[in-house]
Amino acid sequence: MLTDSEWQVLALSAQVGLWATLLCAIPGIFFGWLLARKDFFAKPVLDAVLFMPMVLPPTVPGYLLLVVFGSQGVAGQWLKNNFGIELAFNWKGAVLASAVIAFPLMVQAAKLSVQMIDRRLELAASTLGASPFKVWRTVTLPLMLPGILIGSIMVFSRSLGEFGATITFVGNIAGETRTLPLAIYSATHQIDGDAMALRLILICLALAFFSLLLSNLLTRRAERWLGVRRA
Amino acid sequence: MLEVDVYFQREEFSLQVTHHFSAPISGVFGASGSGKSTLLALIAGLLKPKQGRIRLNGKTLCDTHAGVWTPPHQRHIGLVFQDGQLLPHLSVRNNLLYGYQNISPQQRRLAPDTIVELLEIGSLLERKPAQLSGGEKQRVALGRAVLYSPELLLLDEPLSALDERLKQQILPFFLRIYDECKIPMIYVTHAMSELNFLTSQRFVVQDGKLQQEIN
Question: In the predicted model, is pLDDT for residue A208 greater than 90?
Answer without folding.
Answer: no
